[in-house]
Each structure stands twice: as structure tokens, then as C-alpha cells.
Amino acid sequence: MLVFLLAGAAAANHAPALEPIEGKNVYLGERLSLNLAAKDLDGDKLFFSGANLPANSTLDPDSGAFRWTPTINQLGLNYPTFIVTDDGDPALSASLIVPVRVIFRTMRQERGWGFGVKARTTLFATSDPADLYPKIDRIEVDGRPAAALDNITVSANPTIKIELSSPYDIDTTNLSALLDGVDVGPLTCSDVQTFGTQRNILSLTLTLAPRDLAAGKHTVSIRSGNSLGYSTQVITLNAGGGGKSWH
Amino acid sequence: MALTFFQDTLLVAFDAGLFLFLIGYMIYRRRFTSGGNLLLTLIMVLLLSSLADLAFRWNPDPTIILLANVFLAFCFLFGLTIVAHFSLYSFTKARFLWANELYLWLYLPAVVVALIYAATPLMLTGIVYNPFGFQLIYGPGFWAVVVLGLGLALASFLLEFDMLLKRVSKSENRQALLSLLILCLLAYYYFTDLVLPFFSRGAALISPLPVTLAIVILIYEFIKYHYVSLENV
Q1: pLDDT grade, residue A3 (50/70/90)?
Q2: CB of A138 within 8 A of CB of A234?
Q3: CB-CB neighbours of B6 under 10 Å
Q4: CA angle at residue B69 from B68 to B71, to 5 degrees?
Q5: Would you say the CATH fold of A129-239 matches that of A13-103?
């Protein structure tokens, strides 16, 4: 009986254990390297696998080396799950979730006096894709800058110039503007400025004349975006009158 | 990007091969003269500027970009000064003789501006970058680089063009024509690579093909006609 119990205890398999890894931040354009480590009391051979692993990441099943260079579409928090399994009988496993935040950032490096360079500073950083949508930076009505997006006083047939900017990119092919809910037609972009391979600043000019505005409040909805998504921003115009209702 | 990098690497390797070939040729033919050295220096400067440009492509690390740009500015100013030196020498030789030492003064502005460019943030203040690219931030002092580069290129162009119009001899005409061609190639390369980003906010990464063509023409005319050697002006 004692021999039987001892033999049973010797045969019992123990689950392996993954060494804990703290959550990581990885900046877009850089590569995340994690080396998973696990222990097994029985000395069984261990295999690494994963669940919810991000696209274009790799995990070596033998060494546990995880490598990932995130893309812009993977911005934000990601929760890859790492699993280690032994070859015991029965095979047992353990898992670990490592939160990884993918961050977009714009940096600046300045030159100093002498032949060196100064330390790098962060100008902008976000892990929220919405922060990278184009935003209205500046509005000019008939050549005069407007102070805010709402209650902009305009003439009956104003020319409105809107400057959009994005830290990432602006899709110039899918821009639209609605005046009181009605499409104002094709928009033309000017002053398109690029940053690296992306367009990040551009101007849109809406010429509402000869579709004169009636006196009162009007709204202009500007829809813009990029590969991450689209958003709409609303401008409120306060027309002085003299024109007819635009519908 | 990777394909462009390998294409450019091949071109730069070809340039380096030509440079070594010219050194070998000059040693073998015993044409290692002070005038020929000017040609060697010009080709070396062109080769270095191609290498600086290649560094951008190899690794777009901001520090590398900043340092390569400083190096490129030095090559830009020094290369155009050598061309101006040769043009002025060819132009004045037919009219009056200058002491060779006077030509050294030609290099002073290039050296001073290149040093200021390298050691101060007055011309290039820094770089802003994100995963999709970078933008160089220029100071108002960069106008000195633009004006000096433009001045040197324009002066060389006018001198060579004047020699071409004078039609002194068939040989001189051919030399002036080839020099103009080289000047155009270098001016195109340098202004696109270094000066255009100052005006357009973009960063230009252009192929070193114009430099390779200029080196080929320089070596060809040196071997075939003995041009680009001050002794043979």
C-alpha cells in the first residue's frame, strides 16, 4: 500500500509557472522584445504559445521569445496572453496576460553649441486613436480669423477657410462638409503640408456664395479622418442676413 | 525603402570603385600632380556626400540624420567651391595670372559657414520626428548656406558660360561644356538634397545618381582630354 502511494506521488505532474512580467509601453516604430521564462518542478520540457497575440508578432514556442513591431492600427492597450505547457501526463499549462500599451509620439531633438546634440523631448504622445483624427485648428472668415468654433459672425455670402491638422495623417479623398445638413459639394484642399510620408496639415476653402445665407444661425459640419477613423466637427455661423435660406 | 537603399548602396560602391580606379590610374601614369589633386578632392567630396545621404536611408535615427546633414552641408559648400575654383582658374588663366595662394581665399567662406553649421544651432536647430518621418528645423542662419551655395554655383555657371560663348578654342569649349554639365548635376543634387527641404518643410532623400554621373564625366574627361587638371587648363 505504501509503495503504491509513493509511486502515485512520484508520477503526479505539477503545472509549470510563468515568471510574471509587468505591463509594457511600446512606441510606434519600435520593437517590443519579451523573453518569457517559466519553471517546472518536474523538469518537463516546456512549450510556449499564445492567445490574442497581435498581428505581425512572433512567439518562439521553444525559447519563449516574443517580438512585436506594432502598426498604427494597433494603437492603445493590447492584451496578449502567453501560455506555457509542459509535456507531462497529463499536460498542464499556465497563462499570463501582459498588458501592452502602443503609443504614438512625436519627438524633438535639438542641437546644442559644439558638435553634440541635446536630449530628446516628447512633443506629443497618445495611445488613443481619436487623438490622431484631424482637428480644426484655425478658421478664417473672409480673411479674418475666428476666435472659436461657435457663433462666428459672417456675411450673407462668406468665404470660409478651415485649417485641419493631425499629428498623424489626413485623408484628403474623403472630406465632406454639410451646411445645415446639405452637402456643399466637392471640397478642394490647399496648402497641404506633409510630415514624412503623411499629410498632416491642410486648408479647406468653403465658398458659400452665391448660395447666400439667410439671417440667423447655420451649422457647418466638417467630416474628416484617416485610416484610424473619421470624426465630425461642427461650426456655428451667425449670418447677418441679406440672403435667402440655403436648402 | 529597402530596394532604394540597395540601389543607392550599389551606386555609392560604384563611385568608390571609380575613385580608387582614378587614384590607381594617376599613380600608374604619374599624373599625381597638384592640379590633379583638385579633381581627386572633388570626387572624394562627392563620394562623402553620397555616403552622408546613404546614412539617412540606412538608419533614420534623428542623431544620425542631424550629423549626416551637417556633413552634407560641408560637402555641398566645399564641392561647389572646388568647381568655382576650377572655373575661376580656367577663366583667369586666359586673361591674367593670379598667385595660386589667392585661390585659397575662395575656400574661406565655405570653411567658415560649414564650421558654423557644424558647431552651432544657428543654421540647423534640430529635428522633429515621429514613426512616419522627420522634419529638420532650420534657423535663420541657413540663409547663409543658401546664398553661398547659390553664389558659388551662379559664379561658376557665368564663368563657364562666358568661356563657352567666347569660343577661344574647340578644346576649351568642350571643357567648358563638360564643366557646365557637371555643375548642373552637382547643383541639382545638392540643392534638392540640402536646400529644398528648407523651403518645402519636407526631407529630400534623393538618389546619388547625379553624383555618379558627375564622377563618370569627370574621370572620362580627365583621362580622355586631360581636363579638370589645373596644369592642363
Answers
A1: very low
A2: no
A3: 11
A4: 65
A5: yes
Count of all residues that appear for chain B in the document:
233
Interface test with B, best of A108, A111, A121, A123 (most B CBs within 10 A): A111
Domain that holds residue B228: 2-232
3-state secondary structure of A48: strand
Based on the structure, what is the number of domains in chain B? 1
Could you tell me if A116 lies within 8 Å of chain B, comparing CB atoms?
Answer: no
CB within 8 Å: B201 and A193: yes
User: Is B62 within 8 Å of A115 when comparing Cβ atoms?
Assistant: no
Tell me what the mean pLDDT of segment A16-34 comes to: 95
For the residues B13-35, what does the mean pLDDT come to?
84
Are the beta carbons of B119 and A112 separated by less than 8 Å? no
Q: Residue ranges per domain, chain A? A: 13-103, 129-239
Report how far residue B115's alpha carbon sits from residue B110's, in angstroms, rounded to the nearest whole number: 8
Residue pLDDT, tens place only, A105-123 = 999 999 988 877 888 999 9
Q: Decide yes or no: CATH 2.30.110.10 for domain A129-239.
A: no
Nearest to B83 by CA among B95, B94, B91, B93: B91
> How many CB pairs below 8 Å do chains A and B form together?
75
Shortest Cα distance from A146 to chain B (angstroms)?
26
Residues from chain A that touch B202, judged by Cβ atoms under 8 A, are 194
Q: Are the Cβ atoms of A105 and B66 closer than 8 angstroms?
A: no
Query: What are the backbone dihedrals phi and psi of residue B91, each rounded to the nearest 5 degrees, phi first?
Result: -70, -45
CATH of A13-103, one of 3.40.630.100, 2.60.40.10, 3.30.365.10, 2.30.40.10: 2.60.40.10
Q: Which residue of B has its CA nearest to A169?
A: B132
Residue A123 in grid coordinates? 512633443
Q: Does residue A210 have a cis bond before it (omega within 30 degrees)?
A: yes
